[in-house]
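INTERNAL AUDIT FORM
Audit reference: QA-55
Scope: verify that the stored structure record matches its stored sequence.
Auditor: D.O.
Record contents follow.
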Amino acid sequence: ELLWRNIRAGPLINMDETSVQVLHEPNRPAKTKSFMWVMVGTAADGRRIVLYTYSQRRSGEIAESLLEGYKGSLQTDAYSGYNSVGRWKGIWHVGCMAHSRRKFHEAYIGAKRKGKAREGLLYIKRLYQLERELRAKELPEDQFIRARRSAAASVFRKFKKWLLEVSLAVPSESLLGKAVSYTLSDFQRLVRYLKYAYLVPDNNVAENFIRPFVLGRKAWLFNNTPLGAHASATMYSLVESARANNLDPSHFMYRLFTELPEADTEEKLEKLLPWNMADIPPYRSTRLN
């Protein structure tokens, strides 16, 4: 409950979802797809909360239930299930440039590195380059917002003009046509990261936290029951929230399970939140380079 309360405090939530197979769901065949949703909340001071939620469906109703009462920025890909939430008063719905780039890259490779797709990639590359250059200057927040908006505006204008021209010249069913259509349909949300300094062009932070679940799924393949899927979501939430706050997950979990039985007040529970455990060793990735 404390994690849910803190994630809704904003100012930013990134969201993504992936499929999961649950064998013994009531009145559903074992091969039916269910879904694991991930929410990554970033506080104004940089604290992060990662929450996983199991659901039988991938629909707008699920997104609405997960975000009920939230006001702030929401960054997602262009999946239509987020559209209704994006229209809520108090929600600033931001798109993901990485998804557009991925589609242009597919078109570029599909055309054997020839054709117009390269131009689309260059526009996107320029926007990321501006982002890196301006953040490296460590400007005050208001100056950064003005400088980024000023620099990116002309790139976005030229990019949209190019998209509209190409949309009239290529088949909509082609890889390039699909990339152009996808980007144009989401264009209004793609520019919205320019409004706040804490926003970046893409939703990669959510994808980075859906990845551990996807990698795990390759090993364990499925959950046996809905109760197991809910338990899995809880454990992933605890471990990844620890990692997101640079805590060693094993030390965090040991401390949590040791002290949780004695935490009989909200004040004691708050001390077990990841950002309140500064004495735990930092997280070190065990991946081989």
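Auditor finding: record pair retrieved intact. Residues 141-167 form the longest helix (27 residues).
Action required: none
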